[in-house]
Structures are given as C-alpha cells and as structure tokens.
Amino acid sequence: MLILTRKPGESIRIGEQIKVKVVAVDGDQVKLGIEAPREVDINRSEVYEAIQKLNSQAAVNRPSEDILDALKKIRKK
C-alpha cells in the first residue's frame, strides 16, 4: 500500500486519466474529489462489497434479503 500525505487543495494522479484531490479536512473526515472517465466505476468500499455479494448471489439465483436491505441503506447515505 502506498501512503501519501496531502493537504487540502493538493491532489494525486492515478495513471493519466484519474485525479484525486483533497477537497477538505474536517475533524476525522476527509472529503475527496475524483476526476475520472465516466466508464470508470467509483464506489465506497461498503457499496462495492455489497454489489459483489449481490452479483455472487445472483449468479446462483438466491438474492439475500439481508444484502438487499443493506444495499438500500447504503444507497440512502
């Protein structure tokens, strides 16, 4: 894992097409701005993991109500 230190207004580049900028730091929260092509999926980890679980269950045709409820809650945030 690469660990970098950035201040508000500073950014990092991932390849040629992705830019991640520190927009603000407020207490223990960091707000990031991400510039990337539309075809690049960008999700919070918990949303990505819920999607992966749903896809796995859909492959065996057994969606879990718990996972569907969790995904609905995550999307409301």
Automatic annotation (TrEMBL):
Keywords: Bacterial flagellum biogenesis, Cytoplasm, Repressor, RNA-binding, Translation regulation. Coiled coil: none annotated. Its main location: cytoplasm. GO terms for molecular function: mRNA 5'-UTR binding. The keyword Cytoplasm applies. It is found in: Cytoplasm. The keyword Repressor applies. GO terms for cellular component: cytosol. Belongs to the CsrA/RsmA family. HAMAP family: CsrA. Homodimer; the beta-strands of each monomer intercalate to form a hydrophobic core, while the alpha-helices form wings that extend away from the core. This is Translational regulator CsrA. The gene is csrA.
